[in-house]
Design a protein that fits this description.
- It is a single chain.
- The chain starts with a strand and ends in a 13-residue tail after the last strand.
- The strands form five sheets. Strands 1, 2, 3, 4, 5, 6, 17 and 18 form an eight-stranded mixed β-sheet that branches. A five-stranded parallel β-sheet has the order 7-16-8-9-12, with helices on one face. Strands 13-14-15 form a three-stranded antiparallel β-sheet, with no helix packed on it.
- The protein is of the alpha/beta class.
- It contains twelve helices and 20 strands.
- The structure holds 3-acetylpyridine adenine dinucleotide (N01).
- 3-acetylpyridine adenine dinucleotide binds next to loops.
Length: 496
């Protein structure tokens, strides 16, 4: 065996796993990263205005607080730098194998190990495989009729072309989701004309972002407890709001009033206001956070188009019988997330392919972490571990609380042993999980990226993060088929 643990992906998910392993004193692990740099989503999304909509004192590794945040809601460059600093500080870089895209992972029953193979055909074996490949990396790029004929520039928010200067140009943004509400206010001041194509309006609540004062940073550095207090405050505030998603109508109503008041205050024209008002329950689609999105629509050079896009023409986009002349089109059209595609072949203990299995049922796992038939495998931010109200890093860290106990169990059992979650346990968990969506905002009838093509919610955890933490607190081996076998060092000889 080459490494005790193999981790795929050096974004937040993979690094949460790596950090936990490192801090526990383990060193036999490797992180496979397909790019030349770490950071996952925070490396890939570089569009203007890109920032996190969870406040920074909370959106960080729990045991790596950062007293140096410049803003309450830090931007992409600062978050990426923070991740790099944590990696440096903890000596994680030496574990990362860059430019290594894992294309196949096959469980080997005889040795209880995973044989992983990269795009260049190189293989090695690991005792436990952790996938931290992230759900938001497959851009959804709709092919509108005539899109190839458009003479201007067109790109997706994930593939931002920073060499292309938008200043003074006529620019369209298609989509009004989480990326768009950050891009639109960031580019509005520099473009000549901005045309926003909205299919469905989003509920937008204030972010209340602000630069953090030097005095505050000094205090945080001096008194760690103040930093912790800030984090707790944000966390519990978010959990409280989460109640409005899972059936507490009074909280949901308060959120609605807050959003409506904000819209009324910030958008002057009643017709535009009407167009920006959603007709579905707040929270059903992701609630967006912004302080400067709505005011953009008061500006003369900004047009909100709600007519469906008919087609692209060489000089722009035709919608509602009008042709909008454009130099560039930005697709802020989101990601394909719910129909999870791991972009690799994962073959389990009975020769079953994970992606094939998920095609039939929709993505499912036990606690979003382990999958029956795929022993010694953990998915960080796997099916139904996403959130609409709080920090997903909290979820990843809950998963790692569980995975570390799984690893300890295997360590005690000795080389060659493996644990495979029972199918009945996984099925029952998922049945109950899907039932929990009843009465939540997510089953109130809107269409969102949370749902897969069959209409099943495979992305969100339908309760608060505290419930997930409880569920993942203790690893219960009785939920698993345990195969104890003794494998010699010779049998475990490295694959490479
Ligand atoms: O994507 P979205 P996003 N014709 O799916 C529209 C994370 N994120 O990239 O609502 C016309 O929210 C679509 O319209 P509709 C975060 O988790 C995080 O903005 O489907 N329009 C919608 O308006 C977020 O939730 C941060 O009718 C089309 C938009 O495009 C997730 O990424 C920051 C269309 C897509 O919105 C996705 O956000 C940014 C079509 N054919 C993103 N297809 C943080 O701060 C789609 N649309 C952490």
């Amino acid at each position: 065996m080459d490494y005790q643990v193999g981790i795929v992906g050096a974004g937040f998910a993979g690094l949460v796993a790596a950090l936990r392993l490192k801090k526990s004193g383990r060193s036999s692990f490797i992180i496979f990263e397909r790019a030349l740099e770490l950071g996952g989503t925070w490396r890939d999304n570089t569009y203007p205005g890109c920032a996190c909509d969870v406040a920074s004192p909370l959106y960080c590794f729990a045991d790596e607080p950062n007293a140096n945040w410049g803003r309450l809601y830090s931007g992409q460059p600062e978050i990426l730098q923070y991740i790099k600093n944590v990696v440096d500080k903890n000596g994680l870089d030496e574990h990362i194998k860059y430019n290594t895209e894992i294309v196949a992972a096959c469980f080997q029953k005889e040795t209880g190990t995973w044989l992983v193979t990269d795009a260049q055909g190189r293989s090695l074996t690991v005792g436990m495989l952790i996938l931290g490949t992230g759900p938001l990396n497959r851009p959804n790029i709709p092919h509108f009729p005539g899109f190839q004929d458009f003479k201007g520039k067109q790109f997706h928010s994930l593939q931002w072309d920073s060499d292309y200067n938008l200043a003074g140009k006529k620019v369209a943004v298609i989509g009004t989701g989480a990326s768009a509400v950050q891009i639109i206010p960031a580019i509005a001041p520099i473009v000549n004309q901005l045309v926003v194509f909205q299919r469905t309006p989003a509920w937008v609540t204030p972010r209340l972002d602000r630069a953090l004062a030097e005095a505050q940073r000094k205090n945080w550095k001096k008194y760690a407890v103040l930093m912790k207090w800030e984090r707790e405050k944000i966390y519990w505030h978010n959990e409280l709001l989460g109640l409005g998603f899972i059936g507490k109508d009074r909280v949901n109503k308060l959120m609605l009033q807050y959003a409506v008041r904000r819209l009324q205050k910030q958008v002057k024209d009643p017709e535009i206001r009407q167009k920006l008002t959603p007709n579905y329950k707040i929270g059903c689609k992701r609630i967006l956070k912004s302080d400067d999105y709505y005011p953009v629509f008061n500006q003369q050079h900004v047009t909100l188009v709600t007519d469906p896009i008919e087609r692209f023409v060489p000089e722009g986009i035709a919608a509602g019988g009008v042709t909008y002349g454009l130099d560039a089109v930005v697709y802020a059209t989101g990601f394909i997330a719910a129909d999870i595609d791991l972009k690799m072949t994962v073959i389990g203990v009975h020769g079953e392919h994970l992606m094939e299995k998920w095609k039939a049922t929709g993505a499912e796992a036990y606690l979003g972490t382990t999958v029956s038939g795929f022993p010694n495998l953990a998915l960080i931010l796997g099916p139904n571990t996403g959130l609409g109200h709080n920090s997903v890093i909290h979820m990843m860290e809950s998963q790692m609380n569980y995975v570390m106990q799984y690893i300890q169990y295997l360590e005690k059992a000795g080389n060659g042993s493996y644990l495979d979650v029972k199918a009945v346990v996984q099925d029952q968990y998922n049945e109950e999980l899907q039932q929990k969506f009843e009465g939540t905002v997510w089953s109130s009838g809107c269409k969102s990226w949370y749902l897969n093509t069959a209409g099943k919610n495979t992305t969100l955890f339908p309760r608060l993060t505290g419930s997930f933490r409880k569920l993942t607190k203790r690893f219960d081996a009785s939920k698993y088929h345990f195969v104890k076998q003794s494998v010699s060092e010779q049998q475990l000889a490295p694959a490479s």
